[in-house]
Amino acid sequence: MKVLFVFIGGGVGSVLRYLVALATPAAAFPWATLAMNVGGSLTIGLFGGWSERFGWAEAVRLALTVGLCGGFTTFSTFSKESLALLQSGRWCVFAAYVFGSVTTGLAAVALGYLIAKQ
What we know:
Number of strands: 0
Largest sheet: none
Oligomer: single chain
Distance between the termini: 31 Å
Helix content: over 70%
């Protein structure tokens, strides 16, 4: 049964990711993926904190964290875009993207967790 909850959450997260990508204009910097990954990090922090605070059922926690957030965020796209920046010789944009993604993602998940635990 838990697998079904993860499956449903993952489907919803993937569709949301696709819609955000469609709504975001193409740019020289991969803003859409950065926004999805940072937003997903904030959201998984909130869900993790609320899950502990309110004692959510494991199936609900799995649906929202592993499913929804896992489907919404996209490490594979981040990696593909990073490689493309390297291959095109855009070293500064590559460095800003990788450093910015990792640091803001970590900060966002920590912030979400702290907010949820209040």
